Known about the structure:
The chain contains 11 helices and 9 strands. By secondary structure, it is of the alpha/beta class.
Amino acid sequence: MKNNQPVRAKKHLGQHFLTDQTIARNIVHTLDFSASDNVLEIGPGMGVLTQYLLEQNAQTYVIEIDPESVIYLKENYSALSNNIIQKDFLKYDLNEVFKGASFSIIGNFPYNISTQIVFKTLEMRAQIPQFSGMFQKEVAQRICAKEGNKVYGILSVLAQAFYHAEYLFTVPPQVFNPPPKVESGVLRLTRKDNFKLDCDETLLFKVVKTAFNQRRKTMRNSLKTFNLGDNLKANTIFDQRPEQLSVSDFIALTNLLENDQQN
């Protein structure tokens, strides 16, 4: 017998349940289901996206930390059967399920962990060809921002180094229960064909994070801890502030720093 008793939204989990079926269907349709045989939904709640994922030609998995939601999903979505993972996405080793296989990610992400979800996706980029979902609007805009934009930052550079980032549409607060205090935004990340970069990727992460931690300073000052050689410091790239540099500029800069450190 189905349990139609709604799940109670829990503030500490950042839960805001989407109630608009058209928007839910539109979010699911942002994925290209030919990109991977597997799809992982993060934080399905009561399954408003899940029901449309199960209609697609892909193996659907969900990861949910809330025991009440897990019970609801088991009772209402029998097609998920053994594909409900009751774990914390940020702490769980997903290869216990996927065994190195590729999978796409989708979700109405809890705002309080949404940036951490992106960073974990970047760590697993070799397995994740696409990523689509809902964030706080400002965060979605930041991820998709280009150089020269005041919200361009660490997430923008690192996400766009490996993925094509598209801001798709805005979602108003009133289509959630409870309504959040801000607008939401749906974005899509599609992995680049050449996502293995022509630089030391670990060093790139360090350079980008160090630069933007002092974003008002020029690169010459923000990267002082790298002990730049005199010849390198004379390069005009160091006259600029981090938000002025494109992704390709940061890759070129990483190579300059690596060569400088080797000399």
